[in-house]
């Protein structure tokens, strides 16, 4: 079966909306005979009578109404295709892969994505999550376009933008033995208890001096900071949480800062990074929106 052309379907749609050939021709900027011929072609190719021509105003038939609904789906898809072609030609990427450190607050990330969606860009955005050094590993291994990382090595191949710091708080359940000590605990004291972490085992091994790792004899590795917060609430151990995830439980006094002798807070410094040679409107927009939202949080 030979299918009608988009031009013929547009004529069919215009006549149905305007209720007549003359008004449809005026809207389309074509002659009335040309519009009439186009509609006739749709009828001939489909084998279906689309309009009742015995009335002064063309009335669409029941069968015609069914075909019209499908024709409009085709026209919307064609318009979308044309829009995507134009925007890709203007420099919008087909896909953008972003890897984030899971410690970063999710609200600003979602706000940035929402604002990007409102732009109507033809870009599919994929968000991946890692922690500390794993972020850059995934950025390189999975050919991502943008990363938001804490632990970043730059050999000159990356452009980097600093973001506001994230405050970490050393916490334990209010009934944890660490809170019963007469003096603020030392590193040696902390090593006596279960330490909760969200890192890969190899990172613990090669970063013994990191202020967020204390080298406890018992280390429980958890998949993310939500699980870590739950473990802290159950009194399983102690560990660092970003303040934005801890504030509610701290206000309820369910989680209490550990009065560590070297301080119970620590600032982490997230940065956005992308390849020097990377260009594209989606990358530029997402980067700017993430920076803006995280700066306001």
UniProtKB/TrEMBL annotation:
<dbReference type="InterPro" id="IPR005119">
    <property type="entry name" value="LysR_subst-bd"/>
</dbReference>
<feature type="domain" description="HTH lysR-type">
    <location>
        <begin position="4"/>
        <end position="61"/>
    </location>
</feature>
<dbReference type="InterPro" id="IPR000847">
    <property type="entry name" value="LysR_HTH_N"/>
</dbReference>
<dbReference type="Pfam" id="PF00126">
    <property type="entry name" value="HTH_1"/>
</dbReference>
<dbReference type="GO" id="GO:0000976">
    <property type="term" value="F:transcription cis-regulatory region binding"/>
</dbReference>
<dbReference type="GO" id="GO:0003700">
    <property type="term" value="F:DNA-binding transcription factor activity"/>
</dbReference>
<dbReference type="InterPro" id="IPR036390">
    <property type="entry name" value="WH_DNA-bd_sf"/>
</dbReference>
<dbReference type="InterPro" id="IPR036388">
    <property type="entry name" value="WH-like_DNA-bd_sf"/>
</dbReference>
<keyword id="KW-0805">Transcription regulation</keyword>
<dbReference type="Pfam" id="PF03466">
    <property type="entry name" value="LysR_substrate"/>
</dbReference>
<keyword id="KW-0804">Transcription</keyword>
<protein>
    <submittedName>
        <fullName>LysR family transcriptional regulator</fullName>
    </submittedName>
</protein>
<keyword id="KW-0238">DNA-binding</keyword>
<comment type="similarity">
    <text>Belongs to the LysR transcriptional regulatory family.</text>
</comment>
């Amino acid at each position: 079966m030979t299918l009608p052309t988009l031009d013929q379907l547009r004529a069919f749609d215009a006549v149905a909306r305007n209720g007549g050939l003359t008004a449809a021709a005026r809207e389309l900027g074509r002659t009335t005979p040309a519009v009439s011929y186009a509609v006739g072609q749709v009828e001939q190719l489909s084998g279906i009578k689309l309009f009742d021509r015995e009335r002064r105003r063309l009335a669409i038939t029941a069968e015609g109404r069914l075909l019209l609904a499908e024709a409009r789906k085709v026209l919307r898809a064609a318009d979308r295709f044309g829009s995507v072609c134009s925007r890709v030609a203007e420099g919008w990427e087909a896909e953008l892969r972003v890897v984030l450190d899971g410690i970063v607050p999710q609200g600003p990330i979602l706000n940035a994505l929402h604002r990007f969606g409102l732009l109507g860009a033809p870009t599919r955005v994929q968000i991946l999550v890692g922690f500390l050094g794993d972020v850059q590993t995934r950025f390189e291994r999975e050919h991502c376009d943008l990363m938001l990382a804490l632990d970043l090595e730059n050999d000159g191949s990356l452009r980097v933008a600093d973001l506001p710091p994230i405050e970490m708080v050393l916490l334990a359940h209010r009934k944890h033995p660490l809170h019963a000590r007469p003096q603020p605990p030392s590193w040696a004291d902390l090593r006596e208890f279960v330490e909760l972490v969200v890192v890969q085992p190899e990172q613990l091994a090669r970063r013994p001096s990191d202020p967020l790792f204390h080298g406890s004899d018992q280390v429980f590795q958890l998949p993310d900071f939500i699980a870590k917060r739950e473990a802290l609430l159950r009194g399983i151990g102690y560990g660092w949480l970003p303040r934005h995830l801890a504030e509610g439980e701290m206000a309820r006094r369910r989680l209490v800062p550990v009065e560590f002798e070297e301080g119970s807070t620590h600032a982490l410094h997230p940065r956005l990074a992308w390849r020097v040679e990377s260009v594209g409107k989606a990358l530029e927009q997402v980067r700017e929106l993430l920076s803006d939202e995280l700066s306001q949080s």
